[in-house]
Amino acid sequence: MKKTLLATAIAGALGVTAAAQAATVYDQDGTRLDINGRIAMGISGGGHQDVQPGEDKAGGTEFRDVYSRLGISMSHQIDPALRAFGRVEWRFKGDERDQSGGFAEVRHSFIGLESTQFGTVMAGNFDSFYSSRVMSPFDVYIDRGYEFAAGEGSDLQARGDSIGYITPNLQGFQAFLMAKHYTGNGLPETGEDRSSVLNVQGGVTYQWEGLRLAAGFVQDRDDNALSARGTRHRYDSRDLRGVDENIYGATVSYAFNDQFSARLGYETQDTNDSAIDAGGAVEDYSGFSTWGLGATYSLGQLAFNADVYRVRPDNEENRTAWALGSYYKLSNNFDVFAELHRADQGDITVSTADGVSVDENSDNLFWLLGARYHF
């Protein structure tokens, strides 16, 4: 198998550097404990701007943290065919003093069992299987440029109160199933249904030589329990609930050699016409379809990404987004990067002080320069 198949997401060049540089704190009698993480700093500017009167300024030049994190991984080999594992990972802001406790987010916290015969089961707070196993060939950018997974990426019906199962590798085939639970407990009584909600996602992958195929779905329910919890999983982020139509996606990636790989992807969600006919807002229940085409080229310590998307929201104008990235490893622990992203969101109409409506460009070119130290 061509080793750069895993590098479609720059994993070979950058993405797994943290794991590869993990410090083993304890490793004895089948029990292991590793600590790893990264400190990342950068300067960014541009992108979508909130230019309406009264809104916070956005899009200006900013010195910033670029997703620094600290993680602990643990495992125990119960027997030759069964392994228990766990991980907890925190995000912290590394660019400025933080007197609120230091850590900004518990990014991951899960436990699981991995069997060579029966597969892997895990529970807790982890990434969407749909995003990490189906759409992952396009998740190659450190910040912006990933237009799939309904704009939510690893948060899509995931990150907390979840359980998942992955089959063993069966001659290149693997299937997965995952469910996220939203409890109705603690919600105020309003006369509406406060039952618990279970959103399911699943799919299958196939890998042979340099070829990788993947397809899957995610339930995206419209339910009061999700809305009251403030769950953000809509395509355009304007509604806290789902469209109540499934999201479907598929990707094809191929590593031509150890330096060059290409990827093609498609994702879609139907418009919920019945909800709109019942009085629901069009912008809240509209679906979309998105095509993506991209490539990764790596040469030693240097790697490049290039991707273009055609995004077709049902209730808005079509747009063509693109992203570029360049990454250079000075050492196994230290890399520098540069990324560009144009979402092509077009102009928005704003009112001036004298009441005249004008169109202003709310979508400048986003850019990011930075460096990361992995440990």
UniProtKB/TrEMBL annotation:
Residues 1-22 form the signal peptide. It is a multi-pass membrane protein. SUPFAM superfamilies: Porins (SSF56935). The lineage of its organism: Bacteria, Pseudomonadati, Pseudomonadota, Gammaproteobacteria, Oceanospirillales. It comes from Billgrantia aerodenitrificans. Pfam families: Porin_4. It comes from the Bacteria. This is Porin. Its main location: membrane. Residues 8-345 form the Porin domain. It is found in: Cell outer membrane. InterPro entries: Gram-neg_bact_OMP, Gram_neg_porin_domain, Porin_dom_sf. Keywords: Cell outer membrane, Ion transport, Membrane, Porin, Signal, Transmembrane, Transmembrane beta strand, Transport. Homotrimer.
